């Protein structure tokens, strides 16, 4: 009798997983079709990202974050999924990459590697952020583009690009000891790797190249987004590679993990978005801030790193702390969905959008719980995934026009009805659908074999 019950539950589980996979596959096809149809700028290159609910372009500005993300996503789909191995996808990625390489970097910013945040349609720099994130997505784009085109150098010089006389060298960081670096000048090398070296230098040695002055009342802060993003780049640059460069990045990856773990505070009961440079809780509302979506994203980054390196303790921490804590505290028990921001002491967060439900935290939760379930087979994690899945597909997905809405009220109503904007592009939704489809394929293939 017990065996019959277990067999029935197993069959139901397989049926459910197959249904999830079909939904992910169908939705990914629709999302890719939407961006192929509406986002390509055939006149100037690159992509439009300010796209209304029905595909109309409402602003022609181009955001470097989103340009890099779309190049990366197209290349990843082209390289790893047979049904997307199409010349039109590769050509779109190459067009986006050429636009980035020609216009993203701004040599008059004080650093030859600093990228703009926002460009005009024809590539003129409009805004610069004093952060590393435009450069991070530039690295992702260039490395993935190099993988599919075979252009391993990704040199700067090209027709219409920045004159190489303004970029005479790249920064190469030689690791002497865990926290000491020597900087040398050299020419050539892979463009993504050169930019990565500069990013590590800005984060771990000297941030002055970012253009942010050190004010007298400003104390050094560690934002979880920084080591998270560097860890993402480490995984990108080391995937299926070996050698001296990979060993260098492994050291960076270990440093990133330690930095992320510092955000586990209050005796292991809270994930805080920002801590001091020494890993201590900061005073005030900034120190109490929690971002459930970021914590969940960090969770699957850490789980992935732990699996790659055989670190079982890190795997357990990733699931028990960086997935469960933000879910239990961030899930809206009355209306469903993940709240955007929380205050660890229960005060009202000062961010005006704190109670909204945004698309990307739900994408990260889907990846996190499905990845965790695939490796632990713990039924509770599949239940978490199912709970997020039901909310996400019933609230964000637009069956009429395609793609997803990104911004809902706390009650789950669409409040901003565009499909793309300054921060929402072709990335979180397709990355989620792509990764979930891949994970579900793996789970079902193992069960069928």
TrEMBL record:
<dbReference type="InterPro" id="IPR012341">
    <property type="entry name" value="6hp_glycosidase-like_sf"/>
</dbReference>
<dbReference type="InterPro" id="IPR034116">
    <property type="entry name" value="AGE_dom"/>
</dbReference>
<comment type="subunit">
    <text>Homodimer. Forms a heterodimer with renin and inhibits its activity.</text>
</comment>
<dbReference type="Pfam" id="PF07221">
    <property type="entry name" value="GlcNAc_2-epim"/>
</dbReference>
<comment type="similarity">
    <text>Belongs to the N-acylglucosamine 2-epimerase family.</text>
</comment>
<dbReference type="GO" id="GO:0019262">
    <property type="term" value="P:N-acetylneuraminate catabolic process"/>
</dbReference>
<keyword id="KW-0413">Isomerase</keyword>
<protein>
    <recommendedName>
        <fullName>N-acylglucosamine 2-epimerase</fullName>
        <ecNumber>5.1.3.8</ecNumber>
    </recommendedName>
</protein>
<dbReference type="InterPro" id="IPR008928">
    <property type="entry name" value="6-hairpin_glycosidase_sf"/>
</dbReference>
<dbReference type="InterPro" id="IPR010819">
    <property type="entry name" value="AGE/CE"/>
</dbReference>
<comment type="pathway">
    <text>Amino-sugar metabolism; N-acetylneuraminate degradation.</text>
</comment>
<dbReference type="GO" id="GO:0050121">
    <property type="term" value="F:N-acylglucosamine 2-epimerase activity"/>
</dbReference>
<dbReference type="GO" id="GO:0005975">
    <property type="term" value="P:carbohydrate metabolic process"/>
</dbReference>
């Amino acid at each position: 009798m017990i065996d019959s019950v277990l067999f029935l539950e197993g069959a139901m589980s397989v049926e459910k997983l197959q249904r999830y996979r079909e939904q992910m596959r169908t939705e990914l096809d629709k999302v890719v079709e939407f961006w192929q149809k509406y986002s390509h700028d055939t006149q100037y290159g690159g992509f439009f990202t300010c796209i209304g609910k029905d595909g109309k372009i409402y602003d022609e500005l181009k955001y470097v974050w989103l340009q890099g993300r779309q190049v990366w996503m197209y290349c990843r789909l082209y390289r790893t999924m047979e049904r997307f191995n199409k010349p039109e996808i590769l050509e779109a990625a190459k067009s986006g990459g050429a636009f980035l390489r020609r216009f993203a970097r701004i040599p008059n910013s004080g650093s030859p590697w600093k990228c703009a945040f926002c460009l005009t349609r024809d590539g003129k720099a409009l805004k610069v952020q004093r952060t590393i994130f435009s450069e991070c997505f530039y690295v992702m784009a260039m490395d993935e583009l190099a993988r599919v085109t075979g252009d391993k150098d990704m040199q700067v010089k090209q027709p219409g690009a920045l004159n190489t006389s303004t970029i005479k060298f790249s920064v190469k960081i030689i690791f002497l000891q865990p926290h000491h670096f020597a900087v040398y000048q050299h020419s050539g090398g892979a463009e993504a790797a050169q930019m990565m070296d500069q990013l590590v230098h800005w984060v771990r040695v000297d941030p002055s190249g970012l253009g942010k002055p050190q004010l007298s009342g400003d104390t050094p802060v560690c934002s979880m987004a920084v080591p998270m993003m560097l860890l993402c780049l480490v995984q990108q640059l080391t995937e299926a590679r070996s050698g001296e460069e990979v060993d260098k990045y492994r050291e960076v990856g270990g440093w990133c993990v330690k930095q992320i773990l510092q955000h586990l505070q209050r005796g292991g009961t809270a994930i805080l978005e920002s801590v001091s440079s020494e890993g201590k809780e900061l005073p005030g509302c900034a120190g109490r801030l929690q971002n459930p979506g970021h914590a969940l994203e960090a969770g699957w980054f850490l789980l992935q790193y732990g699996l790659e390196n055989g670190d079982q303790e890190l795997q357990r921490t990733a699931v028990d702390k960086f997935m469960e804590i933000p879910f239990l505290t961030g899930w809206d028990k009355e209306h469903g969905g993940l709240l955007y921001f929380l205050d660890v002491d229960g005060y009202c967060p000062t961010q005006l959008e704190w109670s909204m439900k945004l698309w990307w935290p739900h994408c990260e939760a889907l990846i996190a719980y499905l990845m965790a379930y695939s490796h632990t087979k713990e039924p509770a994690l599949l239940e978490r995934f199912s709970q997020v899945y039901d909310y996400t597909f019933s609230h964000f997905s637009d069956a009429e026009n395609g793609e997803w809405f990104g911004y809902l009220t706390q009650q789950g109503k669409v409040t901003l009805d565009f499909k793309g904007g300054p921060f929402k592009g072709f990335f979180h939704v397709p990355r989620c659908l792509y990764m979930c489809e891949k994970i579900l394929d793996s789970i079902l293939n193992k069960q069928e074999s």
